[in-house]
Amino acid sequence: MTDEMLAWQTSRFRELEVADDGWVVTVRPEQVVEIAFDGLQRSTRYPGGLALRFARVVRYRDDKGADEADTIETVRALAAPPGS
Q1: Rounded to whole angstroms, how far apart are CA atoms 16 and 10?
Q2: What letters, b where the CB count within 10 A reaches 16 and e where it falls short, cover 10-43?
Q3: Cα separation, 67 vs 50, whole angstroms
Q4: Which of 6, 66, 73, 1 is nearest to 14 (CA)?
Q5: With contact defined as beta carbons under 8 Å apart, do 32 and 64 qualify?
Q6: What pLDDT is attached to residue 40?
Q7: pLDDT of residue 1
Q8: What is the pLDDT of residue 27?
Q9: Across all residues in the chain, what is the average pLDDT?
Q10: pLDDT digits (tens, 9 = 90+) for 13-52
Q11: Do residues 74 and 41 make contact, with C-beta atoms less than 8 angstroms apart?
Q12: Quick one: pLDDT band at residue 80, thresholds 50, 70, 90?
């Protein structure tokens, strides 16, 4: 990620900010982000029960609305054993 992208990302997410506790910034779910990852693993640390391994931002999808984004159910289907 370039310095320019990090600056844009910080500005964009501050526009969407609804809360900032000094550690976590909560944003309105309006920006779609395309994420690549190398694998999935079960995790008790995250509410969805899965962790993306080596996740990275590919691009920001201004051509898609939040209603078009994949859900945790899509990710769970990717993690399911074949044929289940």
Answers
A1: 10
A2: eeeeeeeeeeeeeeeeeeeeebbeeeeeeebeee
A3: 21
A4: 6
A5: yes
A6: 94
A7: 76
A8: 97
A9: 93
A10: 999 999 999 999 999 999 999 999 999 999 999 999 999 9
A11: no
A12: confident
Instruction: Please give the Cα distance from 20 to 74 (Å, whole number).
Output: 29
Query: What is the reported pTM?
Result: 0.79
Each as own residue / partner, the long-range contacts of residues 70-76 (CB below 8 Å, 24 or more positions apart, any chain) are 72/48, 75/40, 75/48, 75/50, 76/48, 76/49, 76/50
Both tokens assigned to 3: 């310095």
Using DSSP's 3-state secondary structure scheme, residue 7 falls into: helix
Model pLDDT, residue 15 = 97
Task: Report the alpha-carbon distance of residue 2 to residue 45 in Å, rounded.
Answer: 29
Single-letter amino acid, residue 34: E
